[in-house]
Design goal:
single chain, alpha/beta, Rossmann fold, 5 domains, five-stranded parallel sheet, 12% strand
């Protein structure tokens, strides 16, 4: 925990002095509250989500912490459940935090923002273009806005998770080259945002991305640049410029952020092509990809999913490059392939991978349940060593296979099939009608339309909870403004609901329903 807190605070210091001082203050407040509760006799702790709770506390998100408690992801512990030295260690930490706060109390200068202001006034590329400034800290975004907006004719905007849908619409009007040309505006020249804006919005009226701080996760770097590097009917720029603020030397010695980010970006480029030099202009050299990309440090805060994805991409590429015959044999595996092995599960189960056009789903059935799993979970289950023995299939395999097939049938609807106006489906029909009506108004960006088409697909499949649909319809009410209706739908159905269900061209679900492969998993004794 101490290592995690140290790294988090150094990362905040690297973002801005302002964010660092705010974080110290919140840590002091959190420690003080925890110690007070401890001395009253009990505290709430989450072993599994402890880092998440720590981050939520650091962001002053008490509501999210309370939600974890309500969902029983955090537990109540009595003070006498802890080791005797526990409270002493907490009080020592609090003392250290107070000392740090005192040391920084009178620090007023900020060399990083001074350098940024110098770039804004002297760099020719920055001076003449719309800018997109990314930071990982909401507080840094607000701080930059406060310092820069008076200097640039109130044409600076800060955007974060706390911003409204009207703010998002304002950004589209000012930064999306595909937006109605008669409605495009120039009210914003410097847009400062957290990574919440690095997905789902085209910002390609700008060709300058400034990373005011560097994220641990290289995918975020790609998403940031991807906001201005868009394929569109109206591409205004031939060149894109990326500026990076790296951590100061002493900070980087402690957290090695620059090296971690560079090595992973280079690894991505080595696998996916040298078409985006995001951090340096250096020639890309060979890397020990597997070692670098699958070793996860517990205190970096990286997303485990990204490492997992890289691991499997690397694994498949190595087979393709080093054993082309095996790679061809894998590609030629017949449909409905089936096998069996022992596996560490509590019950015998069957995993089945289904496909119809671009739609893919994976289910695991046993004698009690049938559940959908994502690609990464399925890949972990299917992964086998060379010497593992193939077991025999028995009647139980076919029983669970049929259960998986039924589940696939139950959640699937043919493309374009309208939900029937029967009990439990009338709400889906109503929302489909609303979405089709607003799409016809042509008020949306290409990405908004793509999002709405995916929602239509998910509704047609019965893939959205009835309670969610009912809540959205209630929120929409008698609203007639298409953009406001879209905002209500987005609030109820986040884009990540499509992950694991849809590919980028998910609208294509033509073709037969197919079973690709199945594996019978026999519980190990």
């Amino acid at each position: 925990m101490v290592g995690f807190m140290k790294t988090l605070l150094l990362k905040r210091l690297e973002s801005s002095f302002f964010a660092f001082k705010k974080s110290i203050g919140r840590f002091i407040q959190s420690y003080t509250r925890f110690i007070e509760e401890y001395k009253k006799g009990c505290v709430y702790v989450s072993k599994k989500h402890i880092n998440k709770i720590f981050e939520l506390l650091e962001n002053d998100d008490d509501e999210a912490v309370r939600k974890l408690i309500d969902e029983e992801k955090a537990q109540r512990y009595y003070s006498n459940d802890f080791l005797p030295d526990f409270i002493n260690n907490l009080e020592n930490d609090l003392k250290t935090l107070n000392e740090i706060q005192d040391m920084w109390q009178n620090v007023k200068e900020d060399p990083k923002i001074d350098k940024f202001k110098e770039m804004l006034s002297k760099d020719e590329i920055i001076r003449k273009n719309k800018l997109l400034v990314f930071t990982e800290s909401k507080e840094t975004a607000d701080y930059l806005y406060e310092k820069l907006n008076p200097l640039y004719d109130n044409k600076v905007m800060a955007f974060s998770s706390k911003s409204s849908e009207s703010d998002r619409i304002k950004i589209i009007e000012n930064y999306d080259a595909n937006y109605n040309e008669y409605k495009q505006k120039d009210d914003i020249r410097i847009l400062i945002s957290t990574d919440i804006l690095s997905e789902g919005v085209s910002l390609h009226r700008s060709n300058v991305v400034i990373n005011y701080d560097i994220p641990w996760n290289p995918v975020k770097m790609m998403q940031r640049v991807g906001r201005v590097n868009r394929v569109s009917k109206n591409p205004p720029f031939n060149e894109i410029y990326t500026y990076n603020f790296f951590p100061a030397g002493p900070i980087n010695q402690e957290i090695s952020l620059k090296e971690a980010a560079e090595s992973k970006i280079k690894a991505f480029i080595e696998m996916l092509g040298n078409d985006a030099k995001l951090l340096t202009d250096e020639e890309i050299k060979s890397h020990d990809l597997f070692a670098k990309l699958t070793s996860k440090k517990s205190i970096t805060g990286e997303d485990e999913e990204d490492d997992t994805e890289l691991k499997y991409i690397t694994f498949l590429r190595e087979i393709r490059d080093n054993d082309p015959d095996l790679f061809e044999n894998i590609k030629k595996l017949p449909k409905k392939a089936r096998t069996s092995k022992t596996y560490d599960l509590s019950k015998n189960s069957v995993l089945t991978f289904f496909r119809k056009g671009k739609l893919r789903k994976i289910f695991v059935a046993n004698e009690i349940t049938v559940e959908e799993v994502d690609f990464f979970r399925a890949a972990e289950i299917l992964k086998s060593e060379k010497d593992i023995r193939r077991e025999k299939l028995d009647v139980e395999f076919y029983k669970y296979l049929e259960a998986n097939k039924k589940e696939f049938e139950d959640v699937f609807r043919e493309e374009g099939e309208e939900p029937k106006n029967l009990s439990g489906r009338s709400q889906e029909a109503k929302l489909i009608k609303i979405i089709k009506a607003i799409i016809k108004t042509k008020e949306f960006t290409d990405e908004d339309e793509e999002y709405l088409q995916k929602v239509l697909m998910l509704l047609a499949e019965g893939g959205i909870a009835k309670a969610t649909i009912k809540r959205i319809i209630k929120e929409v009410g008698n609203e007639i403004n298409p953009l406001k209706i879209l905002a209500k739908i987005r609030e109820g159905i986040y884009s990540n609901v499509f992950q694991g269900t849809f590919t980028n061209s998910s609208a294509d679900i033509s073709g037969p329903k197919e079973i690709i492969l199945s594996e019978y998993l026999i519980k190990s004794n």
